[in-house]
Every structure is written in C-alpha cells, then in structure tokens.
Amino acid sequence: MHRSIATVSLSGTLRQKLEAVSAAGFDGIELFESDFVNFKGSAGELGRIAADLGLSIDLYQPFRDFEAMPEAQFRRSLERAERKFDLMEAMGAPMMLCCSNTSPLAIDDRVLAAAQLHELAERAARRNLRVGFEALAWGRFTSLYGQAWSIVREADHPNLGLILDSFHTLSLKDDPAGIARIPGDKIFFLQMADAPLLSMDVLQWARHHRSFPGQGDLAVIGFFEQVLRAGYTGPLSLEIFNDIFRETPNRRTAVDAMRSLLYLESEAQRRLAAAADTAAAPVPPQRVELFSPPPVPALSGLSFIEFAADESSAGTLGALLGQLGFRRVGRHRSKAVVLYRQGEINMIVNAQPDSFARSRFEAHGTSVCALGVRCADPLAAVDRATAMRSQRHDSPVGPNELRVPAIVAPGGNLIHFVSEALGANGLYEADFILEEDASEAGGAGLTQIDHVALGLAVDQLDTWVLFTRAVLGLEPGESLELADPFGLIRSRGVADAARSVRLVLNVSLSQRTRTARTLSVTGGGAVHHIALRCKDIFESVERLRANGTRFVPISGNYYDDLATRIDLDPALLARMRAAGVLFDRSAAGDYLHIYTESIEGGLFFELAQRTAGYDAYGALNAPARMASQAQE
Fold first, then answer.
1. Residue 405 in 3-state DSSP?
2. For 87-170, where are the E strands, in sequence order?
C-alpha cells in the first residue's frame, strides 16, 4: 500500500520534514500549503527535492471556503484555484484537497455546492488534475462524510471524488459503516488520525490533540476496515495536528508515524481475515496488499529485570536487594554479572566493563537497563518488532551461553525475549554458575513481578503507547492525572490480555515534580519503580523492616480519610495504619501496597497484594506517596 504523511504532522523546515519522512520509509507526502508558502524555493525545486528523496507529492492541501458561495466569491475562488493548479503542475502534485466550507457567506444549498465543485473539477481536468472533497467536522453545512458524498455524487464529475478523514468522522461519533457502500474509485484519498477521548470543542481537539493510529482511543481500525471494504486502492496517509509533535525531533516522529500505519494495516488485515473465515456472506476481496507481520507475541510474564552498575554500585545494589529478601544465587560464566532471586523474581546486576549495561550506567547511574519477557517464540517476536521499525540488539555471548533475542525500546533500554521452552531456570542454568543452596531462607514472601513503572518525557508517552501496542501486543487502560505537590502526573497502564506483563507509563506535566527531576537524570524512558507481588503484605513488610528496609511514611490523615470513603474492617484499618500500607478497592477486588524509600536516581520498589479480580495499580494512592516523598 502507498503510505503517505502530511507535512503538518512533523516539526522542522520543509526540507527537514521530507528527509525524515523519506528515512522512515514513506512513499509520499501531503503538502500542507503553509509549508510551501514558507519554503525558500519554487514549486519545481520542491518537486525535484521530493523526487530525489524517493517521495511523491500526493496531495496539495487545503483549499478552503469554496463551495456553495455567492457568485462573486465563487468566481474569485476559481481564479485562486487556477493559481494553485499552476503550482501543483510545477511540483507534480496530482490532487487538491478541498475542505467543506466554514465561511459565514456559505449558502445552505447542496445543489449549488455540487455545481460549483463540478466547475472546479472541470478546470482541474483540463490540467489532468483531480479534486478531493472532504467534510470537516466543523463545516458550516457539510460536516459528515455522507453529506460530502451526496454532494460529490450530485456533482457527477470523474475528476471529483471524496476524501475521508477518520478524525472528522469518529470525533462526531458518526457511524463509518456506510463507507463500505461508497464506490471505492470515488474515494480519492484517505487520511487517518487517532486522538485521546477529550470533552472539548471539536475544532480545538482537532488542531491540538490528534495522534497517530494506535496512540489514542478512537476506533480507527474499524474505520479503516470499512474503507477497505469499499474497495479503496489509493494512498494511506496521516494528517496529525499535535502541539507536542510540532516540537519533537522529526526523525522520531516519522518512525512513530510509519509504525502506526504498519500497525493499522496489520490489525485491519487480521480483522478482515477473521471476518472472511466466519462471515455467512462473502467478504469483498481486498484490492490492496496490506502489511502482514509475524503475530503479536504470546507473553507469559517478566523473566528478569537487569540493572546497570559499576563495581562499587553493584555491591550497594546487592546489599539493597538482600534487604528486600533476595538471595544471591549465581554468577555469570563470562561476565561481571550477578543473579539474585526471590520466589519467581530474578534480578540481574550487570557491572561488566565495555558492555551495553556499562554504557547505560555511565549515562544514567545505577538504573534498570533491560527487561526480560517470556514468550513462546522469541525469534518471531523480534521479527515482528523489527518489522514494526524497532531496532534489533545482539549482545556478545560466551561459550555454551544462550543468545537471547533482544530489541531496543524507546529511550534506549533493551527488551529481551526469553523462550518459554527454557522453563523457569533454563536460561540461568546456561548462563550462570548457580549456587548449590537454592533455598528461600531469608526471603520476605515476594513471589513475582507485578508491574514495572516507567518515567517518560511528555513527548515519549504516545511513542510508548504505540510501541507497547504494536510491538508487544499490550493494550492501554484508562489515562489518569495524579496530583504531585508540584504539578500533575499523567499515568497510564498497559498490559496483555492475561495480565502477565504490566507496565505503567508516567509523564510529568510540570518540571518541578519528583518524576520530572528523576527524568533529568535518567533521560526518560527509564524504570522508576518496580512493584513486587506478595501473598501477605503485612508479613512481608514486617520481615523487610527487620532487614532494614525503609518505607515511605504515610500521613495518619490518609487513614482517617480512608475510613470515610471505604467500608473497612476496623481491625484491618488499624493494621494498615500501623504498617504504613495503602489500600484501594474496585468492584472486582482489593489492592494493598506500600512503597520503599528511593535509592540512587530516584528508583524505588513497591510491595503489592491483589485480591480477587482487582485490575488497576492503586493510582489514587500515588498522591499520598508523592506528598510524603516531597516532605522527606
């Protein structure tokens, strides 16, 4: 499929945008008019630059306030269109986007709108150009794709067709099912955009908060599916207005953009194939070839967490893990790497000189540098990731050691895919010299990794949502805003369907929060806290306090308030108050948790106990933790 992107979607000068788009593997661009107006060069020069970069100029846009106008304004607009056609011919752009009228002079007359668009298409045809008509969600008289299609059909000109935009349809909650009944050859162009669900004016929503497919909450896959069912064969394009994207490095934005289209195509392909297998009526055959990567990996948990350290900090970190009840159980066969374990939790401390971990330590200090994820087919998982524009990473291995496939996650850390076939201990038996005594003596009752929380820069959140969705098959939950004493934290959990892998993505909307200060050290995309599950949190806390672990103290006022909000057994409330344990309840179950004090770089641990079907992360208690940390 021909993949395109509007130049308004990226930061930089027009030439810089084209270079980023080309490097990301796009086939073409939509040229936003203001980008050309501010370009220091002619239309012909721009066409040559695009061609040299392997890009076509698929669409010139937008042409505004044209149809259903009084005669005088209509005639002036025709002359304006002729000048745009001159530019399009010079640069080699075959199509103009004409968006529905927002002018107060517009007339509510569908027949007049059709007649005037017919005349525009006639003039375009004389130059072998085409015009696409798009319904803006805030158009004065034409805001729905069905209204725009009615006008195009009335105009009845071969050089006039429909342009569809997922945002304009989905933001108005218009049903896209009718798209499948539009002749595919009359859909001239397709623009895709996602967005978070926001309660605000649609014009402001559109101009500031669109995102790439897979980053937001709109039903973009279903929309695209209907366009394919119509028999559409034209470009698949992105038109994204987003304030953060306008300041994000355009090379990264372009990679996200390409990943979003590949994700969109692969999901639509999967849905259409499933429909073809189950539908009683035949599904129309696809007329375009869609991207089809290896399937989403079947994940079954986190195998390990790896820390970057040097010789000195490795000892300090080992002592901290010992306080948390972890026991040193092995030393790597060929590297300065030590394995610690408790329950099913494996913590690896990597102090190997001249290694990836050491480079991360030198950049960020003692920190998590890699996660190991268990899956059924690691090679297929890496193949999917690289197809989705992630970078593969190959670590050096010694004799008889296992090569564990890995990729680079956004921000630079690694994700290793560990084969389930190795069992619980196969990887560690191969790569480590294990201690003979594997008892749990001295443990604190911690059983497994519940979730891992990452601190992200504002411009990394959308990247991570898309990465976890497209590469790992995780789905995002509700987006929450949490109160730090010095600003707001936006938090969003992502998890697989079985909840075997859970990540929490946290972004500071202020530069003064603890999360923001941590980011100044870690550079973003780094793990800032690790939640470890236990069966009896009170017993675990008691053991850890005896080991010297220090927990974030919680105000007594928190427990007084908790008793007014949730009907709790007074004995349980008293026990939580004495231990410093926090509490959350959902319709499905309860969540008890407590946070340790931070270590170097702001990293801290959380102990968590889930009951029944509780499926969240105790986020409503985060302000109590952040306020306490601020008062330390």
1. coil
2. 95-99, 130-134, 160-165
